[in-house]
Write a structure and sequence with these properties.
The chain is an alpha+beta fold. It contains eleven helices and 13 strands. A hairpin with a 6-residue loop joins strand 2 and strand 3. Helix 7 crosses helix 8. The longest helix is centred in the N-terminal third of the chain and has 17 residues.
Length: 409
């Protein structure tokens, strides 16, 4: 007897002949070519009928309990209406589903009894629903970067639908043109953001931030629920970010609109920021960038301009010794030790250029590896940074003003 027929008869015996074409065809996906499991199921029934074997189909499918009858045009219309009611703009989507536990177990059990390695019923459910949605929504499934995740719960008699709106990512560079504002919102240390007398009931240590000067206009245009700012490192509050700016990714959660005039948005952000912050090179990005932009920060080099005051006049020839500074051993600075792990970091200096302003004032242009604390490089931070500029010049030095001129990447 043909092996396919033997397998079919065994399946019919286990299910007592009550199995739909989807579930029957799925078990023959490795044996019979054809566009879809239902057609495979039909072919198998014809094989059995040719052998004059009676096949009954009086009850619901013993595997899926006729689940596939619920994947129909009515369900697609309900999903389309839900998306319309939410006023969502989207392109690609993916489908997810929740199935009754017993259905999944019956499908797995049948495969195990037949010693088959075929796709699961859940995978077929998602695929079949996805094909109908592509037609009904006039959109394509996108498994790499879907705008929506359409989750259908088949556990109830009437399937329920939940729409997950995936984030929108914008990437660019920012310039911070004034001192005194942090990169991101800084919750009040006392009330932890709840609002108290000390913070004027704002819940914040500072009234505004780079993030808060950029994100409101983007949220307004996209109608997003909230935003998250991801920077390639950060500068201190009293440090300006000049030059070509610092790379950042802005994550917009649950955006309803995704088509944005980025040139117009850039102009609007910069106008509303009032000369405090400027956005450059704004473009669409992807989820992976929010992680890579952070992890790449220590591997990039940054250029700083530091105004340095010296406790005593120094000999100009000592400036030449600054060129010998290359590998820096830097223990976590005292000023950030309460929020950073206490360890020694090894950082590299590419170059130091010095300009004498007065006998006790010099200007330094320092190109160093990301993560190098410049203020402590200058002061020595009670010898936690070695070598340092104070010891090289032979007099205590203090950074009185610092600007970031360039961030690679």
């Amino acid at each position: 007897m043909d092996s396919k027929l033997q397998k079919a008869l065994k399946i019919m015996e286990i299910t007592k002949g009550n199995i739909c074409d989807h579930c029957l065809g799925r078990k023959f996906s490795n044996d019979i070519e054809g566009p879809g499991n239902p057609l495979r199921g039909e072919k198998i029934r014809k094989i059995i009928l040719q052998e004059d074997i009676t096949v009954s189909k009086d009850s619901k499918c013993a595997v899926c309990n006729d689940l596939f009858f619920n994947i129909n045009e009515e369900l697609v219309k309900n999903i389309a209406q839900k998306i319309k009611d939410l006023r969502l703009e989207f392109d690609g989507f993916v489908v997810g589903s929740k199935l009754v536990k017993e259905v999944v177990e019956r499908d797995q059990s049948l495969s195990q009894k037949m010693e088959l390695e075929v796709e699961s019923i859940k995978k077929e459910v998602n695929r079949e629903l996805g094909k109908l949605l592509e037609k009904g929504l006039h959109k394509e499934a996108d498994f790499d970067n879907p705008h929506l995740v359409i989750m259908v719960d088949f556990k109830k008699e009437t399937p329920s639908v939940r729409i997950q709106i995936n984030p929108l990512f914008l990437e660019g560079r920012y310039r911070k043109l004034i001192r005194g504002i942090p990169q991101t919102k800084w919750p009040c240390r006392k009330c932890k953001g709840r609002g108290c007398e000390e913070c004027g009931f704002t819940g914040k240590m500072y009234t505004e931030s780079v993030e808060e000067l950029i994100s409101p206009r983007v949220l307004e245009i996209t109608q997003g629920r909230s935003s998250k700012f991801h920077g390639a490192g950060r500068e201190d509050i009293d440090v300006r970010m000049l030059g070509t700016g610092r790379p950042f990714v802005l994550e917009i959660k649950e955006p309803r609109h995704r088509t944005i005039d980025l040139k117009k948005l850039t102009l609007e952000i910069n106008q509303e920021a009032g000369g405090k912050v400027e956005v450059l090179q704004l473009k669409y990005s992807e989820k992976a960038r929010k992680a890579s932009i952070k992890t790449s920060s220590p591997d990039t080099f940054k250029t700083y301009q530091a105004q340095v005051e010296l406790e005593e006049p120094f000999h100009a020839e000592k400036l030449e010794k600054l060129q010998s500074m290359n590998i820096i051993n830097q223990r976590t600075p005292l000023r950030v030790s309460h929020r950073r792990a206490d360890k020694v970091r090894i950082r590299e200096i590419k170059s130091i250029k010095a300009k004498i302003i007065s006998p006790q004032h010099i200007e330094l242009i320092i190109k160093g590896q990301g993560g190098l604390y410049i203020k402590e490089l200058i002061s020595g931070d009670n010898e936690r940074t070695s070598p340092n500029i104070s010891e090289v010049l032979g007099t205590p030095a203090r950074c009185v003003q610092l600007d970031v001129l360039e961030v690679q990447g």
